[in-house]
């Protein structure tokens, strides 16, 4: 063995060590770096050197896997590129979290922090126009590491394209909590929004900080639930105002997430989120004390063990007008100011399948003169004084929240959907562990891809949607409809950057 050769020297002369089929690599092209995966290695006619066939992340290639009319592998058009294997470098956006790997791969500039003097800037969420080039592809999103998927999907969903909880990044904190907020803002949210990629190591640092903080001893090791993580960070660490103020029997309760519960005798089969929320509020006697800026809803299921419904239909808009404890409401029959609510009428199929049943005095007495409804007990609504005695215009504005993300679970792995734009097709799917490179010392490859098929199903008539066989549904649609765990809604009027 040549003891004069230092490990550094060896490394710099053997870049291609460890590169093989399916390695994630970069190559320098005239127009900048191209990133891709080695799909084929061998020799091609006319080239002496060992060549590599790359499947690029972007359409910077020459073919769909052919070279001089000979097919070597198959990929989407313009994504295949043939280069010398020796000109491939390990993907510099990734630095292996394993110590072993670091010895083999030359130390690369930490691009997220290093020379980038702008990294402390405030970065706005990714706009619908930017999603395509910034966020979609392999090695995009947040890189999963060691059971981190619950945290990856929660962070990705909240911060990639929405600013609704950016107060988490900016609110003043105690000195002891400031480092955690800094990690969240500078090492996770900023790179996610500016580069579309966050290294697994950054999320691991974040988890280690949370663990040192003492709220849980297993943040770095165990699979957890997103709501546990979100509550710890929002409540215990950043001391954020509770997102949700619920009133029940005159008392106000506060929380960060809302777990949907249903009583036994509901008749829902293929419910919408709107119906689930209404039924849950109805059976618990709850109202919203105010319009929440962000509403985090947990579906009636227990992790992967039990789910109450085979499919749930995401309501793109959640109409919460009826769920507010105060504020004028319209009689569901005539549109005048409602003064009474009937909880018995709520489940009566004679009325529409959504919305609490509120009536003006006249309509209520008419409805309840029917023999079947004589026994109903109505309750008086809290109506703001300024409305009483005045006729209500028919164009009362309704309070609505919009869906911006859905977290799903299947066989204890979390993935998420983000609705990133105004169009029906504007959906992306994120998996922080979509693929893996190497075994124990390897790393996960996160991936974000467009899933416009979801929009197609959401436009279907309910009866047709009900008949869809989950395993036959296109693309990732089955996961959205069948595996939903948590829905994230935001108030459109309260977003920071709009
Ligand atoms: Zn009426
Ligand atoms: Zn009634």
What labels describe this entry?
498 residues; alpha+beta; SH3 type barrels; Cathepsin B, Chain A; nine-stranded mixed β-sheet; 13 helices; 23% helix; elongated; disordered N terminus; binds zinc ion
For the biggest sheet, the summary is: 9 strands, mixed
Instruction: Name the poorly predicted regions.
Output: 1-17, 95-119
Number of self-contained structural domains:
3
- The portion of residues assigned to helices is 10-25%
Q: What is the level 1 CATH name of the largest domain?
A: Alpha Beta
Distance between the termini: 64 Å
Total count of strands: 26
What overall form do the CA principal axes indicate? elongated
Oligomeric state of the chains in view? single chain
Given helix and strand content, the structural type is alpha+beta
The H-level CATH homologous superfamily of the largest domain, spelled out, is Cysteine proteinases
CATH topology of the largest domain: Cathepsin B, Chain A
CATH architectural name of the largest domain: Alpha-Beta Complex
Could you describe the 3D structure shown?
The structure is a single chain. This protein is an alpha+beta fold and 498 residues long. It folds into 3 domains: 7-91, SH3 type barrels (Roll); 102-323 and 399-498, Cathepsin B, Chain A; 325-396, no CATH class. The chain contains 13 helices and 26 strands. The chain has helices spanning 7-12, 99-104, 128-134, 149-159, 167-170, 178-195, 200-213, 226-237, 273-284, 361-367, 453-458, 462-466, 477-482; strands at 24-29, 32-42, 51-56, 66-67, 70-71, 80-84, 89-90, 137-138, 141-142, 197-198, 244-248, 251-255, 258-259, 286-288, 294-298, 301-302, 306-307, 317-319, 340-342, 358-359, 378-380, 400-410, 413-419, 427-437, 443-450, 484-491. Strands 8, 13, 15, 18, 22, 23, 24, 25 and 26 form a 9-stranded mixed β-sheet that branches. Strands 6-3-2-1-7 form a 5-stranded antiparallel β-sheet, with no helix packed on it. The longest helix has 18 residues, at 178-195. Mean pLDDT is 82; it is low at 1-17 and 95-119.
